[in-house]
């Protein structure tokens, strides 16, 4: 059974809370104003929310709101670590806690944290951001990720981004933190499925994703000793799984198959009680247990 009303309730349950959304919105607006109007104004060229909040795929457990800040730095004069140092110095004047990461600046709010990455704009508006060691400026497709995610959601009649949110929740419920794939890596796998499939409903898309992923990578899991090449959204030559440990990939694939069995039983169940039971095994207590919800 597809249980559309149950899934509507479930999707509402896993959304970031209104308090989270408001804090991201007001926190980002305050940050942008501070950079536009203060000591950073001479460098500031623009900013945008990126990551899960920017792509509209955040869930309640998404505690980091990524922000990219474009500055008119000269690549030949400003090394990435200098841009990070300057951004931290300026932000420290307005925020109590400001922490430098390898390639970003982290500011904790009450419910979420802002992760701020400096960027430089090159020809044809390409962005470059610090690499993970802050030694080089590397190409960023962050803005394109947002555009393509919006376009995919439109193309799939509004089902793509809900599917991503559900599968992020499934990952957190069924997988251990030490080996589960990172959020963007999972999102790239889901994007590949959506690009090659018809989506008719979220529950059928869950089953379809698990079966598609199991079949696509089954032989790779059995015959190789490294993780597969997973294409970045909008960048077919970039492998987002290059640092995905093979043993973690295998654990992911094992869970994909176990979860596909549950999803198949849930979709095919003739009993509403059995279908709800299987969906709750797959997605946890956030999926409503009330069998009397009208569908």
Structural account:
It is built from 10 helices and 9 strands. α6 crosses α8 and α8 (202-223) packs antiparallel against α9. The longest helix is centred in the C-terminal third of the chain and has 23 residues, at 246-268. The termini are close together. The chain has 2 domains: 18-140, Beta Polymerase, domain 2 (2-Layer Sandwich); 145-283, no CATH class. The strands form 2 sheets. Strands 1, 2, 3, 4, 5, 6 and 7 form a 7-stranded mixed β-sheet that branches. Strands 8-9 form a two-stranded antiparallel ribbon. The radius of gyration is 21 Å and the shape is globular. It has 295 residues and is an alpha+beta fold. The chain has helices at residues 4-14, 18-37, 51-55, 80-91, 142-155, 160-174, 183-195, 202-223, 246-268, 272-283; strands spanning 44-49, 64-71, 99-100, 105-108, 113-121, 127-130, 137-140, 231-232, 235-239.
Features:
295 residues, alpha+beta, Beta Polymerase, domain 2, seven-stranded mixed β-sheet, two-stranded antiparallel ribbon, 10 helices, globular
Layout of helices and strands:
Layout: H1 4-14, H2 18-37, E1 44-49, H3 51-55, E2 64-71, H4 80-91, E3 99-100, E4 105-108, E5 113-121, E6 127-130, E7 137-140, H5 142-155, H6 160-174, H7 183-195, H8 202-223, E8 231-232, E9 235-239, H9 246-268, H10 272-283
Helix pairs in contact: 6-7, 6-8, 7-8, 8-9, 9-10
């Amino acid at each position: 059974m597809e249980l559309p009303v149950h899934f509507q309730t479930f999707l509402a349950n896993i959304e970031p809370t209104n308090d989270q959304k408001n804090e991201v919105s007001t926190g980002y607006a305050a940050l942008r104003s501070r950079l536009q109007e203060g000591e950073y104004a001479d460098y500031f060229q623009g900013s945008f929310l990126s990551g899960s909040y920017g792509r509209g795929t955040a869930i309640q457990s998404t505690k980091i709101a990524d922000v990219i800040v474009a500055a008119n730095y000269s690549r030949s004069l400003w090394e990435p670590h200098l841009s990070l140092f300057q951004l931290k110095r300026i932000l420290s004047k307005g925020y109590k806690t400001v922490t430098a990461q390898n390639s970003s600046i982290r500011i904790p709010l009450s419910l979420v944290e802002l992760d701020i990455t400096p960027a430089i704009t090159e020809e044809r508006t390409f962005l470059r951001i610090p690499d993970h060691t802050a030694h080089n400026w590397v190409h960023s497709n962050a803005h394109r990720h947002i555009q393509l995610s919006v376009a995919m959601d439109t193309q799939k009649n509004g089902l793509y981004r809900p599917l991503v949110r559900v599968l992020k929740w499934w990952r957190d419920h069924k997988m251990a933190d030490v080996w589960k794939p990172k959020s963007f890596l999972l999102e790239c796998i889901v994007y590949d499925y959506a690009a090659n499939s018809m989506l008719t409903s979220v529950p059928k898309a869950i089953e379809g994703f698990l079966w598609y992923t199991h079949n696509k990578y089954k032989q790779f899991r059995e015959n190789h000793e490294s993780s597969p090449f997973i294409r970045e959204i909008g960048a077919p030559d970039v492998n987002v799984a290059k640092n995905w440990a093979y043993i973690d990939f295998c654990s992911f694939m094992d869970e994909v198959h176990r979860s596909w069995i549950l999803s198949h039983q849930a979709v095919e169940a003739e009993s509403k009680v059995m279908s709800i039971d299987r969906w709750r095994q797959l997605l946890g207590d956030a999926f409503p247990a009330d069998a009397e919800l009208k569908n």
